[in-house]
Design brief:
Elements (H helix, E strand, L loop, with lengths): L7 H12 L5 E2 L6 E5 L5 E6 L5 H16 L3 E6 L4 H14 L3 E4 L8 H9 L3 E5 L11 E5 L1 H16 L15 E5 L7 H19 L3 E2 L7 H4 L6 H15 L8 E3 L3 H13 L11 E2 L6 H8 L5 E4 L2 H16 L21 E4 L2 E4 L3 H6 L6 H6 L4
Parallel strand pairs: 3-4, 3-5, 5-6, 6-7, 7-13, 8-9, 8-10, 10-11
Antiparallel strand pairs: 1-2, 12-14
Helix pairs in contact: 1-11, 2-11, 5-6, 8-9
The structure holds beta-D-glucopyranose (BGC).
The site of beta-D-glucopyranose has 12 residues, from loops.
Amino acid sequence: MNVRRPLAVLTAGLVLSLSACGGGGAGSTDGASSSSAKPEDITVGVAMPTQTSERWIADGKAVKEGLEKAGYKVDLQYANDDIPTQGQQIDQMITKGDDLLILAAIDGTALSSQLDAAKAANIKVISYDRLIRDSANVDFYVSFDNYKVGVQQGTALLTGLGLLNADGSKGTATGPFNVELFAGSLDDNNAGFFWNGAFDTIKPFIDSGVIKIKSGQTKIDEAATLRWQQEVAQKRMEDLLTSAYSDGSKVDGVLSPYDGISRGIITALQNAGYGGSGNKMPIITGQDAEIASVKLINDGVQYATIFKDTRKLAEQAITVAEAYLDGKEPEANDTKTYDNGVKVVPSFLLQSDIVYKDNIKPLLVDSGYYTQAEVDAGQAS
Ligand code: BGC
């Protein structure tokens, strides 16, 4: 089980701001706004995709704890990455009379009927980290700057290969380097943002011949990983090694969009002898700073990951929920980027950081996200 220590400062601010709105929320009986409802009469439905990935466990926990601290009831559901299960869970939240919904979709295009029902019941919907598409009834989006996450993944790859220096200046390496590219799940709106950010960053080096994609698989649908699954990624890496590297050539770098995918890639590479003497591991990127992968970075097996502080995202979701429950419009910091196919959804986007071996301590340990003991063990206590 993955336990995050709350950021004292964030939590204190949250309690203050939420208690300031106590007594002015939505009614719990009909889902409609009512200025007389107390927080304890309000239930927030929280739908998360899966417990197979640490980050969603951390997100669910942080959202639940923050809302409960402010006095609200929380109806938290995980759907095992199963689309119909998530649809039913949200249907039930609406029938039960939950007053507001915070939803991290499995398939961002599969929730239109639930969102129609929410709208009809006057329930506000906050799309959490993954944009819900094809519906006018998404009220707000909280996430990270997902294109920039991709840029950071591309930058980490280039830095690891020596094509860039740590300060972003041109590195001394000349290549050519053999690189393979992985993308996330295509039904997740974020996958395209990560891919575009990363691809735009490395494209000049592909164009100049310094980076070679030996498999020839340079399109997102060739590189995609259904449901972001580790096993799917491992299988694809094995296939790539067989089809493009049986001539004795070596993989120098792998762009991976998520730590679970990176671990699948690493297993495939290790099974093929990489990481042994005279056969070094390629530069491999990731995302989410999952504890097992942070240890792999510390041990020099994975090169980098992207840290998205789930405590801050949860806090932001709660700030938005609080505004709606108090009958106010939440503050957006982006009203242009996230077009869901029907409307541009007002968003609040947070910033992420690249984690390399040498900044694990300042980013992850000093901020209280993990203890040094957890990093050393590769397991959260
Ligand atoms: C999230 C990533 C995560 C991925 C797989 C994406 O929607 O933004 O943080 O790695 O899903 O769970």
